[in-house]
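Our preliminary data section would be incomplete without showing what the modeling component actually yields. Below, a chain of 153 amino acids is followed by its predicted structure, encoded as tokens that our downstream tools consume directly.
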Amino acid sequence: MHCPFCRNADSRVVDSRSTEDGTCIKRRRQCTDCGKRFSTVETASLTVVKRSGVSEPFSRDKVMSGVRKACQGRPVSDDQLAVLAQQVEESIRSKGAAEIDAHDVGIEILGPLRELDHVAYLRFASVYQAFESLTDFEDAVADLRRHALRDAG
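Predicted structure:
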């Protein structure tokens, strides 16, 4: 990390704090040459590998945008989508992998989406689980009913 004031490559950490959501560490640094202080923010990178083989950083916004399409016309707020995206990211990060396939991100969305809205879940699942027939939909609906009964009782 170069000092933003004098470009010296050496600095020492004066203070470290975790952010509220625990995804970043803020560090207060002091340049060993000019003595000025500056802050840095460190995050662990999470990379999504697309079908084409291209890698890109994980994005909560992309999760929200994909799920928003499935939730179109449903009573789901942007705040609820933001919480879902956070749950998905936390779930992926808890597995400890630095890279994840884009398809696996879609699969990770299914659990929180099932809890949020059943119709949106079916729409999304039909794509990510590659439904090919009415039987696939019937099985998914039966599974939703089992979950609803288990949660109610």
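Helices lie at 60-70, 78-94, 102-116, 118-128, 134-152. Residues 134-152 form the longest helix (19 residues). Preliminary results of this kind motivate Aim 1 of the renewal.
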